[in-house]
């Protein structure tokens, strides 16, 4: 059982690392808008932009 | 059939479609059609696949878009834009009708298409958009217009200082909660080792080691995570007021120091797991309460959008637009019909009709002639007028009302929370039992005195008790929120207990606040009469004329129309001379004529009376039922209105209200309510106007509608978003319900603490039993409060 005397201090170090990472996440505003983040993975690069749409886009840009 | 874009029902007879993926989909209006087409053309249609299936508000109408250019005015922008250097400007905008994450994505994608946008971040939970843009390449109004094209209305708002505080607090709570959570898990793991033995046996040295490990993990929880409780306790002591943080701090610090002492001397028991878990539970409760309050505050702030306040000032040869705050005494300004007067002044035009209802409560427009005083905040109803400014900013009547409101707010009776009353008894109880236990054991068995006292301290730890109030509070805020009621603070829970008087404003609160055709009586062919009335009234700007203009879709064409001030209109159609107006005006032609009932607008030609109308500010449909219910429950409804005697009297009679006050100025309303409070009444106030804001601030609890004036919304405690008087009843019911839940919570928590006390005092409560009992009692309280979330 003496291995526990070595393993628990190692676990303490891991916990400290985990808390440090958590603090960093809070500080970089990752908990600001929790409702939103789950959806992000679904939305982007959903479909390649085809030629047709690009035309329309530049059309619209010109108008603007 | 539902609209493809906004998911609201498509009205009958509307035949508009958009094509998407080769199929035609029905839409409800041209606005939705334009928005849907923009979204599809811009290749952002993933929005339609991933959004929540919740109906949206109808998109902005194009003519509202014109005003957006006012936001480009540098004087206006100063109030809400931050300059980040290099021409980059930063603004935070509130965006209406964001319903889900897909909206956030859509807005960001659309904005990033504009050249000149550097960064656009949408926060869906607070419905805010932060945008960074290059001022040289893009104007703010273009950003707002781009958003309007995809159906979102974004506007700058007045930032709230308190909100910033909440944000800082929330971040620190998340950190404290994270530390408490992670560390408590470790302490519990070690505690299980201590309860059941590691690998079957627990040697003396291993037990000591595990105690030290628990100490290492529990220390940050007690010294860092639990700081808010110590701070609260200190604040309470400084203000010599007892609060729940005091017994919490005593229990936490007492149990911690004793456990540290046990670890160092290797004697007695340690309770690290109990106090860590206790801190974690309590922090969770506080954090949820904070979140609910912050959310309510944010929504309230979002409603206070900044409207561009510009005035048109005459210069030597023409006119210029200036920000209202730059007006000086002596300036001559022009006010267009439908605009709000920016400053107090004297009328320079010959005559004017101004609507002062927001300031005075008087629902009929006031007629002013040259030289009369007109006040800021009133609405110009008639033709364009010229005004010489006599008072600006801080000196205006409007500013006076705001000052009165601030004074009333400071004077408002403070509600003592139940929990603070309980805290007093609790502290006395803990100190007494701890002392008695310690002394008793000191004489019987001094060796055990400290450890039994420690067990008593842990057993009486007011964990469930401290959770009783915040969890119930969070529940009620959430529940009312779902019903479209915004709660800005928790005073409602306490004040509902003694509530006996409900003060109600008339115009805009009991009534709709706008003129409507209530009844009409045709003496001849009615379609023809409708066309005549609509045709003639179309020459009038008078608010009473507004509902009559809508009588017919093909109004009769009139010529040589003349406006008799205060009487009515006369004009010629198809060669016949017609008049529409007051009884006196018609009696000039038909001296014998008497209108039926309450009809006060009459249409006639020279030979006969054609039709008569009753146009009035109509009661809200739910007003009668709401008032009756309030009376049945024993509350006394009172009308306080700035309107004239007979109009207030009529409303009071039709609603069965026995007490009413008419022609009250804001200061009269304030003294009425303070008198009632001095006589021991608990008073709720429901109002919507600027003139109501001081009373709203003074009342024990105040409510207003989301369409009310900004000022009323800042001073009210509760905002009824559903625009229905009936919601007063919902608030009363909800508050009563939360009171009963809180009472159950208190009873249970106290029962637990009291019943475990004898066992602890006799030294029967082991650390594991204390931890188990505390967790179970807390969970029970939480589960009970969760019932508030259910309908």
Automatic annotation (TrEMBL), chain A:
InterPro entries named among the record's database cross-references: Cyt_oxidase_maturation_cbb3
Keywords assigned by UniProt, alphabetized: Membrane, Transmembrane, Transmembrane helix
Compositionally biased residues, Basic and acidic residues: 44-64
Domain of life: Bacteria
One of the Pfam families matching this protein, by short name: FixS
Segments of this protein annotated with the region Disordered: 43-64
Keyword Transmembrane listed: yes
Transmembrane feature ranges: 6-26
Signal peptide interval: none
Name of the protein described by the UniProt record: Cytochrome oxidase maturation protein, cbb3-type
């Amino acid at each position: 059982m003496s291995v526990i005397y070595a393993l628990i201090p190692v676990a303490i170090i891991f916990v400290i690392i985990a808390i440090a990472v958590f603090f960093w996440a809070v500080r970089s505003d990752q908990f600001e808008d929790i409702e939103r983040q789950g959806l992000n993975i679904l939305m982007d690069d959903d479909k390649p932009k085809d030629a047709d749409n690009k035309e329309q886009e530049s059309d619209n840009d010109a108008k603007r | 059939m539902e609209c493809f874009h906004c998911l609201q029902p498509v009205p009958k007879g509307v035949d508009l479609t958009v094509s998407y993926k080769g199929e035609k989909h029905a839409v409800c209006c041209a606005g939705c059609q334009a928005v849907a087409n923009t979204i599809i053309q811009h290749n952002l249609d993933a929005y339609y696949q991933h959004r929540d299936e919740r109906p949206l508000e109808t998109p902005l109408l194009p003519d509202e878009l014109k005003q957006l250019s006012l936001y480009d005015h540098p004087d206006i922008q100063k109030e809400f834009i931050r300059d980040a250097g290099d021409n980059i400007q930063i603004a935070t905008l509130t965006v209406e009708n964001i319903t889900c994450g897909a909206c956030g994505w859509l807005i960001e994608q659309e904005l990033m298409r504009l050249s000149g946008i550097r960064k656009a971040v949408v926060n869906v939970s607070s419905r805010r958009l932060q945008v960074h843009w290059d001022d040289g390449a893009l104007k703010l109004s273009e950003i707002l217009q781009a958003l309007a094209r995809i159906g979102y209305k974004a506007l700058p708002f007045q930032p709230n200082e308190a909100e910033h505080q909440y944000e800082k607090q929330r971040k620190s709570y998340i950190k404290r909660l994270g530390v408490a959570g992670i560390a408590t898990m470790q302490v519990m793991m070690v505690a299980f080792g201590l309860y059941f033995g590691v690998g079957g046996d627990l040697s003396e040295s291993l037990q000591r080691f595990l105690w030290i490990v628990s100490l290492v993990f529990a220390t940050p929880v007690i010294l860092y995570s639990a700081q808010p409780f110590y701070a609260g306790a200190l604040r309470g002591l400084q203000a010599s007021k007892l609060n729940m943080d005091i017994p919490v701090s005593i229990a936490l610090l007492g149990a911690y120091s004793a456990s540290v002492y046990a670890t160092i001397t290797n004697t007695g028991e340690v309770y690290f797991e109990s106090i860590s878990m206790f801190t974690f539970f309590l922090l969770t409760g506080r954090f949820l309460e904070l979140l609910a309050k912050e959310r309510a505050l944010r929504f309230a702030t979002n409603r206070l959008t900044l409207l561009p306040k510009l005035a048109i000032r005459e210069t030597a040869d023409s006119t210029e637009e200036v920000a209202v705050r730059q007006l000086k005494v002596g300036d001559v300004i022009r006010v267009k019909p439908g605009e709000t007067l920016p400053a107090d002044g004297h009328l320079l035009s010959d005559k004017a009709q101004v609507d002062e209802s927001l300031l005075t409560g008087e629902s009929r427009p006031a007629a002013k002639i040259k030289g009369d005083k007109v006040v800021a905040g009133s609405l110009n109803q008639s033709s364009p007028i010229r005004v010489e400014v006599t008072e600006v900013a801080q000196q205006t009547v409007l500013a006076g009302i705001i000052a009165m409101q601030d004074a009333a707010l400071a004077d408002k009776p403070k509600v003592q929370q139940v929990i603070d009353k309980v805290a007093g008894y609790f502290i006395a109880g803990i100190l007494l039992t701890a002392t008695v236990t310690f002394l008793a054991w000191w004489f019987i068995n001094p060796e055990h005195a400290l450890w039994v006292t420690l067990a008593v301290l842990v057993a009486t730890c007011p964990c469930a008790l401290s959770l009783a109030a915040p969890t119930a509070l969070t529940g009620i805020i959430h529940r009312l929120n779902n019903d479209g009621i915004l709660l800005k603070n928790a005073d409602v829970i306490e004040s509902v207990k003694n509530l006996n008087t409900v003060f109600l404003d008339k115009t805009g609160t009991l009534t709709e606040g706008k003129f409507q055709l209530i009844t009409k009586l045709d003496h001849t062919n009615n379609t023809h009469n409708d066309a005549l009335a609509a045709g003639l009234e179309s020459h009038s700007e008078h608010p009473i004329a507004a509902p009559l203009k809508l009588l017919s879709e093909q109004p009769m064409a009139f010529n040589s129309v003349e406006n008799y001030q205060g009487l009515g209109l006369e004009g010629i159609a198809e060669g016949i001379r017609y008049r529409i107006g007051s009884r006196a005006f018609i009696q000039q032609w038909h001296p014998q004529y008497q209108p039926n009932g309450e009809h006060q607008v009459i249409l006639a030609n020279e030979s006969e009376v054609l039709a008569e109308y009753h146009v009035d500010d109509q009661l809200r449909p739910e007003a009668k039922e709401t008032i009756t219910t309030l009376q049945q429950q024993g509350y006394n409804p009172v009308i306080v209105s700035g309107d004239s005697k007979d109009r207030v009297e009529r409303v009071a009679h039709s609603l069965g209200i026995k007490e009413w006050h008419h022609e009250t100025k804001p200061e009269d309303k304030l003294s009425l309510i303070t008198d009632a409070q001095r006589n021991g009444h608990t008073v709720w106030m429901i109002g919507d106007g600027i003139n109501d804001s001081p009373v709203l601030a003074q009342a024990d609890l105040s409510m207003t509608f989301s369409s009310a004036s900004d000022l009323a919304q800042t001073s009210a405690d509760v905002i009824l978003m559903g625009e229905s008087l009936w919601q007063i009843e919902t608030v009363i019911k909800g508050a009563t319900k939360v009171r009963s839940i809180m009472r159950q919570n208190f009873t249970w928590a106290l029962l637990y603490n009291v019943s475990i006390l004898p066992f602890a005092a006799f030294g029967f409560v082991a650390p594991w039993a204390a931890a188990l009992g505390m967790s179970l009692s807390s969970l029970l309280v939480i589960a009970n409060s969760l019932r508030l979330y259910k309908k």
